[in-house]
Predict the structure.
Amino acid sequence: MPDTGDEMTCRELVGLITDYVEGTLPAADRRRFDEHLETCEYCANYVEQMRATILALGELPEESISPRVRDELLDAFRGWKSP
Amino acid sequence: MEGLAQSQVELLEALRAGDEAAFARIVDELSPGLMRLARVYVSTDGAAEEVVQETWIGVLNGLDRFEGRSTLKTWIFRILVNVAKTRGVRDARSVPFSSLDVTAGEDRALDPDRFFGDHTRAPGQWSIAPAPWPEDAVWETDALRLVRDTVDGLPRAQREVITLRDMVGCSAAETCSALDLSEANQRVLLHRARAKVRAALERAFDEMGPAS
């Protein structure tokens, strides 16, 4: 495909992906991004994998403080207003 | 937004009036995220819990002076960062905090060899294209462990941002405010961090063989 200068390359798309998913990409670039994505299955894979990565990051098990520390904090709160 | 601001005012009033249930609620809501961020600065869960505990004591000490220039949530995360930094000074083994530009230096999100060079027939196109991943593979225990380990190995500034954004679920604005970052720097750090986690998963899935 000849490079017309306006078409987004794969390299450029990968560099802009965070702006794209953050919604901070200017409208013209967003359109070029979407146009490239429609015709390039590799970049579609990349975007899909990035979305899966972000979802996986949000799925990691999380820990909170232990009940003992929580109780100590509630004690501290009770003591806080009544010195 | 107005509803959020309103509920924040009500929460602040409740806390200042000594409403223990309100305090318990916010402790339960924010402590998992605080534990996450604390682990960026200290190397054990026990130490992270101490940082979080110290943070909540700092919240109580500062609550009457809180002016609401940031949200209560980002103010509390800022206190945690300060507590962790103070602790870092105390513990010689901890990595020193740097005030250098966190986005400086060559730190490419993706290997440039993945694309054809400028003086080739297909400049800027994939030379090693991303292959589809096996269905649902990212949800496997091994993959999630790899995600966690990769985040743990990131440079601190990238780790702070990806932790708050993608693991704790803070907005870009909250993250900038909690970490004292410009929006542009926040985005650069997030971009690099996410790209490295994706690349780690890609390497692992490539070793498993082609998708069926």
Notes: Chain A has four helices and no strands. The radius of gyration of chain A is 23 Å. The CA atoms of residues 42 and 59 of chain A lie 26 Å apart. The longest helix of chain A spans residues 41-58.
